[in-house]
Amino acid sequence: MSAPILVTGATGRLGQLVTARLLEHDQRVRVFTRRPETARALFGNRVEIAAGDFADRDSLHAALAGTRKLFLLSPISERLAEEQIAAAGAAVIEGASRIVKISGSDWTIDPSGVSISGDAHAAVEWHLRGLNVEHACLRPNAWMQVSLLNSIRQAANGQPLEARYGAAQVSYIDARDIADVAVQQLLAREVAEKPIILTGSESLSIRHVAGLLARVLHRPVGVAEPSGRLAPLLGGSFEHRAVAQFATLIASGRAAAVTRAVPTLLGRAPRSVASFITEYFAADAALAG
Fold first, then answer.
1. Secondary structure, 3-state, 241-281
2. Which of 28-36's residues contact partners 24+ apart within 8 Å by CB, and which partners?
3. Taking all residues of the chain, what is their mean pLDDT, rounded to a whole number?
């Protein structure tokens, strides 16, 4: 039997998708998690479970022992760079041949100094380039599952959409497409030589999103103008400050670029915002029925 692929972040939204897709490809999967009970409830006996934490080097090495590849994903935190660098180093020591990392959005990383989260991811990417291991870094744009759900729920409740980013356009990407590219890079003969910038196939403003929602709901959907200028939080947690910086950068138009990474790697178009909205209401109607 082949050596397992270690998946970190497997109990989160994206990690679950990656794990499920690897299992569909008949891959042997081991998940590294602080919540083994949750992992067992999600995946049953289809995966190996390695309980531990990035900060616990012994558990990290134990999880990586005998693996061949590492899917590297962890939540936004002030320890992100330290923990991911430790994981990458442990992977090399334990003999892993490939690392696929979920990085920050391209506009948080380049240029440097505009995002505390982007700078942390950039530090990990830089470290990976110095290691003797094949690696790919995925830089996904704003996720539909994170950035659009609140707008969809507002429309469903008859409320106007909050124009959090003003009139700025965003090329939203579906988390399922991110997972598909991650698995493609884990299983491909070779990985991409440069960071992969993942976006949807179109760039939409909040008014475009309102129009798509109006077609599905068969009624007008309004947009509430922002009440003031967005500014990063100076206090609060690392995550809150990072998210505030994301909003400021998106509002300045930094998330509008469209790439062809998904069709190039997967041979199909990215999932669209229109289809994401349709699926949401179809699932909602199925539950109600």
1. HHHHHHHHHHHCCCCCCCCCHHHHHHCCCCCCHHHHHHHHH
2. 28/1, 28/2, 28/3, 28/4, 29/4, 29/5, 30/4, 30/5, 30/6, 30/63, 30/67, 31/6, 31/7, 32/6, 32/7, 32/8, 32/59, 32/60, 32/63, 33/8, 35/11
3. 95
Strands 48-51 and 223-224: unpaired
170 contacts 142 by C-beta, under 8 angstroms: yes
Query: Would you say the C-alpha torsion 284, 285, 287, 288 has a positive or negative sign?
Result: positive
pLDDT digits 0-9 by tens, 154-203: 999 999 999 999 999 999 999 999 999 999 999 999 999 999 999 999 99
pTM of the prediction? 0.95
Q: What is the pLDDT of residues 257-268, one digit of tens each?
A: 999 999 999 999
